[in-house]
Design goal:
- The chain has helices at 15-37, 47-58, 85-94, 114-129, 182-186, 201-209, 216-223, and strands spanning 9-13, 40-44, 67-71, 73-75, 137-140, 164-167, 177-180, 190-195, 227-232.
- The protein has 243 residues and is an alpha/beta fold.
- It has a six-stranded parallel sheet, with helices on both faces. It has a three-stranded antiparallel sheet with strand order 4-7-6.
- Helix 1 (15-37) packs across helix 2 and helix 2 packs parallel to helix 3.
- It starts with 8 loop residues before the first strand and ends in an 11-residue tail after the last strand.
- It binds 6-phosphogluconic acid.
- The site of 6-phosphogluconic acid has 16 residues, from helix 2 and strand 4.
Protein backbone atom coordinates (compact mmCIF):
# COMPACT_ATOMS: atom_id res chain seq x y z
CA UNK A 1 0.00 0.00 0.00
CA UNK A 2 1.08 3.56 -0.58
CA UNK A 3 -0.04 7.00 0.45
CA UNK A 4 0.22 9.05 3.60
CA UNK A 5 -1.68 7.79 6.61
CA UNK A 6 -2.95 10.03 9.34
CA UNK A 7 -4.07 8.91 12.82
CA UNK A 8 -7.74 7.93 13.05
CA UNK A 9 -10.24 10.67 13.69
CA UNK A 10 -12.67 9.93 16.53
CA UNK A 11 -16.13 11.40 17.00
CA UNK A 12 -18.27 10.46 19.98
CA UNK A 13 -21.87 11.37 20.69
CA UNK A 14 -25.36 10.03 21.10
CA UNK A 15 -26.93 7.82 18.46
CA UNK A 16 -28.52 10.76 16.63
CA UNK A 17 -25.08 12.42 16.44
CA UNK A 18 -23.49 9.23 15.09
CA UNK A 19 -26.18 8.85 12.43
CA UNK A 20 -25.85 12.45 11.27
CA UNK A 21 -22.06 12.38 11.32
CA UNK A 22 -22.08 9.20 9.24
CA UNK A 23 -24.63 10.60 6.80
CA UNK A 24 -22.60 13.78 6.34
CA UNK A 25 -19.35 11.87 5.89
CA UNK A 26 -20.73 9.48 3.28
CA UNK A 27 -22.43 12.35 1.47
CA UNK A 28 -19.28 14.49 1.42
CA UNK A 29 -17.06 11.65 0.18
CA UNK A 30 -19.63 10.63 -2.43
CA UNK A 31 -20.05 14.18 -3.73
CA UNK A 32 -16.29 14.57 -3.96
CA UNK A 33 -15.83 11.31 -5.87
CA UNK A 34 -18.81 12.01 -8.13
CA UNK A 35 -17.46 15.46 -8.99
CA UNK A 36 -14.08 13.99 -9.88
CA UNK A 37 -15.01 10.72 -11.56
CA UNK A 38 -18.81 10.50 -11.84
CA UNK A 39 -18.62 7.32 -9.77
CA UNK A 40 -18.47 6.39 -6.07
CA UNK A 41 -17.66 2.88 -4.87
CA UNK A 42 -18.64 1.82 -1.37
CA UNK A 43 -18.46 -1.44 0.60
CA UNK A 44 -21.10 -1.89 3.27
CA UNK A 45 -21.44 -4.24 6.28
CA UNK A 46 -24.14 -6.22 8.01
CA UNK A 47 -24.71 -6.36 11.75
CA UNK A 48 -25.76 -3.43 13.91
CA UNK A 49 -24.42 -0.79 11.53
CA UNK A 50 -26.78 -2.05 8.85
CA UNK A 51 -29.84 -2.22 11.07
CA UNK A 52 -29.13 1.11 12.79
CA UNK A 53 -27.71 3.32 10.04
CA UNK A 54 -28.91 2.19 6.62
CA UNK A 55 -32.36 3.78 6.77
CA UNK A 56 -30.71 7.17 7.38
CA UNK A 57 -28.23 6.65 4.54
CA UNK A 58 -31.09 5.74 2.19
CA UNK A 59 -32.40 9.30 2.61
CA UNK A 60 -29.22 10.94 1.29
CA UNK A 61 -29.88 12.97 -1.81
CA UNK A 62 -27.37 11.37 -4.14
CA UNK A 63 -27.51 10.15 -7.71
CA UNK A 64 -27.80 6.44 -6.92
CA UNK A 65 -27.21 5.51 -10.55
CA UNK A 66 -23.55 6.53 -10.09
CA UNK A 67 -22.88 4.68 -6.84
CA UNK A 68 -21.54 1.11 -6.91
CA UNK A 69 -22.34 -1.01 -3.85
CA UNK A 70 -20.12 -3.86 -2.67
CA UNK A 71 -20.13 -5.71 0.63
CA UNK A 72 -17.41 -5.88 3.27
CA UNK A 73 -18.53 -9.41 4.06
CA UNK A 74 -21.42 -11.81 3.74
CA UNK A 75 -22.69 -14.83 5.58
CA UNK A 76 -23.01 -18.16 3.69
CA UNK A 77 -26.79 -18.02 3.52
CA UNK A 78 -29.37 -17.50 0.80
CA UNK A 79 -29.93 -13.92 -0.35
CA UNK A 80 -33.49 -14.20 0.96
CA UNK A 81 -32.40 -15.24 4.46
CA UNK A 82 -32.97 -12.77 7.31
CA UNK A 83 -29.30 -13.40 8.18
CA UNK A 84 -28.14 -12.19 4.76
CA UNK A 85 -26.24 -8.89 4.86
CA UNK A 86 -27.56 -8.25 1.35
CA UNK A 87 -31.16 -8.78 2.47
CA UNK A 88 -30.81 -6.24 5.29
CA UNK A 89 -29.20 -3.70 2.97
CA UNK A 90 -31.87 -4.21 0.35
CA UNK A 91 -34.68 -3.78 2.85
CA UNK A 92 -33.28 -0.67 4.53
CA UNK A 93 -31.20 1.18 1.93
CA UNK A 94 -31.00 -0.15 -1.62
CA UNK A 95 -34.73 -0.78 -2.02
CA UNK A 96 -35.95 2.48 -0.41
CA UNK A 97 -33.39 4.52 -2.41
CA UNK A 98 -34.26 2.72 -5.66
CA UNK A 99 -30.64 1.80 -6.33
CA UNK A 100 -30.46 0.26 -9.83
CA UNK A 101 -29.77 -3.49 -9.88
CA UNK A 102 -26.66 -2.92 -12.03
CA UNK A 103 -25.05 -0.93 -9.20
CA UNK A 104 -25.53 -3.70 -6.63
CA UNK A 105 -22.62 -6.14 -6.39
CA UNK A 106 -23.93 -8.79 -4.03
CA UNK A 107 -21.52 -11.29 -2.49
CA UNK A 108 -22.85 -14.75 -3.43
CA UNK A 109 -23.10 -16.16 0.08
CA UNK A 110 -25.26 -19.03 -1.10
CA UNK A 111 -22.49 -20.46 -3.33
CA UNK A 112 -21.56 -24.02 -2.34
CA UNK A 113 -17.87 -23.40 -3.13
CA UNK A 114 -16.92 -20.26 -1.23
CA UNK A 115 -13.35 -20.28 -2.53
CA UNK A 116 -14.62 -20.08 -6.07
CA UNK A 117 -17.19 -17.44 -5.09
CA UNK A 118 -14.39 -15.36 -3.53
CA UNK A 119 -12.36 -15.51 -6.75
CA UNK A 120 -15.30 -14.52 -8.88
CA UNK A 121 -16.23 -11.65 -6.53
CA UNK A 122 -12.62 -10.44 -6.69
CA UNK A 123 -12.93 -10.20 -10.47
CA UNK A 124 -16.20 -8.29 -10.15
CA UNK A 125 -14.62 -5.92 -7.64
CA UNK A 126 -11.52 -5.41 -9.79
CA UNK A 127 -13.72 -4.72 -12.82
CA UNK A 128 -15.07 -1.63 -11.07
CA UNK A 129 -12.43 -0.64 -8.50
CA UNK A 130 -9.25 -1.61 -10.36
CA UNK A 131 -6.38 -4.01 -9.69
CA UNK A 132 -5.59 -4.05 -6.86
CA UNK A 133 -9.06 -2.82 -5.90
CA UNK A 134 -9.28 0.63 -4.39
CA UNK A 135 -12.70 1.51 -3.05
CA UNK A 136 -13.75 5.06 -2.32
CA UNK A 137 -15.38 4.15 0.99
CA UNK A 138 -15.40 1.16 3.35
CA UNK A 139 -18.11 1.33 6.01
CA UNK A 140 -17.61 -1.18 8.80
CA UNK A 141 -18.86 -2.31 12.16
CA UNK A 142 -16.52 -3.96 14.64
CA UNK A 143 -17.16 -6.80 17.02
CA UNK A 144 -16.41 -6.68 20.76
CA UNK A 145 -13.51 -9.07 19.99
CA UNK A 146 -12.05 -6.56 17.51
CA UNK A 147 -13.08 -8.27 14.28
CA UNK A 148 -13.96 -6.21 11.22
CA UNK A 149 -15.85 -7.55 8.21
CA UNK A 150 -15.27 -11.32 8.66
CA UNK A 151 -11.61 -10.92 9.62
CA UNK A 152 -11.29 -12.34 13.13
CA UNK A 153 -8.46 -11.98 15.67
CA UNK A 154 -5.64 -14.47 15.14
CA UNK A 155 -7.17 -15.92 11.97
CA UNK A 156 -4.78 -16.81 9.11
CA UNK A 157 -6.99 -14.79 6.73
CA UNK A 158 -5.36 -11.69 8.20
CA UNK A 159 -2.17 -12.67 6.37
CA UNK A 160 -3.86 -13.42 3.05
CA UNK A 161 -3.14 -10.80 0.37
CA UNK A 162 -5.92 -11.87 -2.00
CA UNK A 163 -8.72 -9.28 -2.30
CA UNK A 164 -11.66 -11.51 -1.35
CA UNK A 165 -11.46 -14.47 1.02
CA UNK A 166 -13.57 -17.47 1.94
CA UNK A 167 -13.84 -18.06 5.68
CA UNK A 168 -14.95 -21.51 6.81
CA UNK A 169 -14.49 -21.21 10.57
CA UNK A 170 -15.61 -17.82 11.83
CA UNK A 171 -16.17 -17.71 15.60
CA UNK A 172 -19.25 -15.51 15.04
CA UNK A 173 -22.11 -17.53 13.56
CA UNK A 174 -22.55 -18.52 10.86
CA UNK A 175 -19.00 -19.91 10.51
CA UNK A 176 -18.91 -19.82 6.70
CA UNK A 177 -18.50 -16.36 5.19
CA UNK A 178 -17.01 -14.27 2.41
CA UNK A 179 -14.99 -11.18 3.26
CA UNK A 180 -12.90 -8.44 1.74
CA UNK A 181 -9.30 -8.77 2.88
CA UNK A 182 -7.40 -6.38 5.12
CA UNK A 183 -5.35 -4.92 2.22
CA UNK A 184 -8.52 -4.08 0.28
CA UNK A 185 -10.22 -2.50 3.28
CA UNK A 186 -7.11 -0.54 4.26
CA UNK A 187 -6.58 0.83 0.77
CA UNK A 188 -10.03 2.44 0.57
CA UNK A 189 -9.90 6.22 0.28
CA UNK A 190 -11.95 6.44 3.45
CA UNK A 191 -12.55 3.83 6.18
CA UNK A 192 -15.32 4.50 8.68
CA UNK A 193 -15.85 2.24 11.67
CA UNK A 194 -19.11 2.63 13.57
CA UNK A 195 -19.40 1.07 17.03
CA UNK A 196 -22.42 1.26 19.29
CA UNK A 197 -22.96 0.00 22.82
CA UNK A 198 -20.93 -0.62 25.93
CA UNK A 199 -19.73 -4.05 24.82
CA UNK A 200 -17.61 -2.22 22.20
CA UNK A 201 -15.85 0.07 24.72
CA UNK A 202 -12.77 -2.10 25.31
CA UNK A 203 -12.36 -2.80 21.61
CA UNK A 204 -12.58 0.90 20.75
CA UNK A 205 -10.03 1.82 23.39
CA UNK A 206 -7.59 -0.83 22.21
CA UNK A 207 -8.07 0.10 18.55
CA UNK A 208 -7.39 3.76 19.24
CA UNK A 209 -4.76 3.59 21.93
CA UNK A 210 -2.94 0.31 21.48
CA UNK A 211 -0.63 1.18 18.66
CA UNK A 212 0.78 -2.35 18.67
CA UNK A 213 -2.55 -4.13 19.11
CA UNK A 214 -2.89 -7.12 16.77
CA UNK A 215 -6.70 -6.83 16.68
CA UNK A 216 -8.04 -6.58 13.11
CA UNK A 217 -9.80 -3.31 13.94
CA UNK A 218 -6.55 -1.87 15.31
CA UNK A 219 -4.56 -3.01 12.30
CA UNK A 220 -7.11 -1.47 9.98
CA UNK A 221 -7.02 1.79 11.94
CA UNK A 222 -3.23 1.86 11.61
CA UNK A 223 -3.07 0.87 7.96
CA UNK A 224 -6.00 2.83 6.52
CA UNK A 225 -5.27 5.94 4.47
CA UNK A 226 -8.01 7.92 6.19
CA UNK A 227 -9.93 6.43 9.10
CA UNK A 228 -12.90 7.73 11.06
CA UNK A 229 -14.32 6.13 14.21
CA UNK A 230 -17.91 7.05 15.02
CA UNK A 231 -18.77 5.90 18.53
CA UNK A 232 -21.83 6.31 20.65
CA UNK A 233 -21.20 7.44 24.21
CA UNK A 234 -21.13 3.87 25.55
CA UNK A 235 -18.69 2.57 22.93
CA UNK A 236 -16.59 5.70 23.40
CA UNK A 237 -16.67 5.64 27.20
CA UNK A 238 -13.10 4.33 27.56
CA UNK A 239 -11.55 6.40 24.78
CA UNK A 240 -9.50 9.33 26.03
CA UNK A 241 -10.61 11.96 23.56
CA UNK A 242 -13.84 12.69 21.75
CA UNK A 243 -15.06 14.98 19.02
C1 LIG B 1 -21.72 -9.48 9.97
C2 LIG B 1 -21.16 -8.16 9.58
C3 LIG B 1 -19.92 -7.94 10.38
C4 LIG B 1 -20.28 -6.92 11.42
C5 LIG B 1 -19.48 -7.16 12.65
C6 LIG B 1 -19.96 -6.28 13.80
O1 LIG B 1 -21.75 -10.38 9.17
O2 LIG B 1 -22.14 -9.58 11.12
O3 LIG B 1 -21.03 -7.89 8.29
O4 LIG B 1 -18.84 -7.53 9.68
O5 LIG B 1 -20.08 -5.63 10.96
O6 LIG B 1 -19.61 -8.51 13.01
O7 LIG B 1 -21.30 -6.60 14.02
P1 LIG B 1 -22.15 -5.80 15.05
O8 LIG B 1 -22.08 -4.36 14.65
O9 LIG B 1 -23.55 -6.36 14.95
O10 LIG B 1 -21.53 -6.04 16.39
Amino acid sequence: MSGTRTPPEVRIGDLAFVLEALARDVEAEARDALARRARFTIAIPGGSVATTCFARLARLELDWTLIEFFWTDERAVAASSPDSNYAIAHALWLGPANVPAGCIHRMPGEAPDLGRAARSYALELEGVAGTPPRLDYALLGAGPDGHVASLFPGHPALLDPRPVLAIEDAPKPPPRRLTLSLPVLASAERVTIVALGKEKAHMAREALEGMVSPLPVARLAREARSCLFLLDREAGSRVERGG
